[in-house]
């Protein structure tokens, strides 16, 4: 089986973890601080605060901006449920809009969705391509709204000359499938000194001085074991991303010729880092999306559907008043998308086999 995702971990990561084990400092120590410094420099911000995962980074980002009960956050539900859950954890209400051809929130729908309760916009840089940040930031400035970037799938992606996570308050995940990993872990990035200070307080039980708890906080800290892996992964991130892009371009050159397949649309003003390589299977294709998935898996090709049920239609939230919205593009994408292996360990032989298999399935069923 060619896996849909596989972390690229080598001897440098093993040695880094061993060094932490030998040091006896397993919790939030020197390796966490080193990863925070390196990641802040990489993204181009003043502060990076390590957290236990991407979801807690999102929750802390909202809370650090004072967003809570009675506030609305504009976002799109074509995402993993964590994006929506973080808003709910903070006590706020999602204000949902539709997606555009990049799979991200449709910036043209933001202003009509703004109400007197709106406090923030949460763009989700889905699958590794940034949202339309120039338009979005202009709207945020004019309406005095906070921008929380869900960059959990977009490490290293750029809009123009800036990396995602440097426009507003950025949130990243280092889960095992991401473009770089710490196993589990997250990061909050910001240029706002007050937000950074508040975030550090919140992730550490509201404690700035040991055993002095200034506010209700959480245990959202990263371990030094995780950070040791992250330090080494960050050094390789650009190379990992370059291989992902190369594989995606290889796929595009073949799949764009197959009737009924829509390759990912990459916008010219931004850099896509392909956390996922996601095709749309249209009606003209001789197999349904689900039939294609079954056939590929039967031939040893790992693939996945991200996401088959939009976040607002999940059982956990579907009955909520804010979830009662009609978003035709989100529904369409959920019915059409299929993702193929694009991680750095996909070999030239693997990707050639994937292309030939999809082509053969298209021809034999046409």
Task: Write a structural description.
- It is a single chain.
- Helix 4 (81-89) links the parallel strand 2 and strand 3.
- The longest helix has 32 residues, at 224-255.
- 39% of the residues lie in helices and 15% in strands.
- The chain has helices spanning 11-23, 30-43, 54-64, 81-89, 110-113, 133-143, 193-203, 224-255, 289-298, 328-336, 348-364; strands at 47-51, 72-75, 93-96, 118-121, 146-150, 158-159, 162-163, 169-173, 186-190, 207-209, 212-213, 261-262, 270-271, 277-281, 337-340.
- The chain has 366 residues and is of the alpha/beta class.
- The model has no long low-confidence stretch (mean pLDDT 97).
- It folds into two domains: 11-233, Type I PLP-dependent aspartate aminotransferase-like (Major domain) (Aspartate Aminotransferase, domain 2, 3-Layer(aba) Sandwich); 237-364, Aspartate Aminotransferase, domain 1 (Alpha-Beta Complex), CATH 3.90.1150.
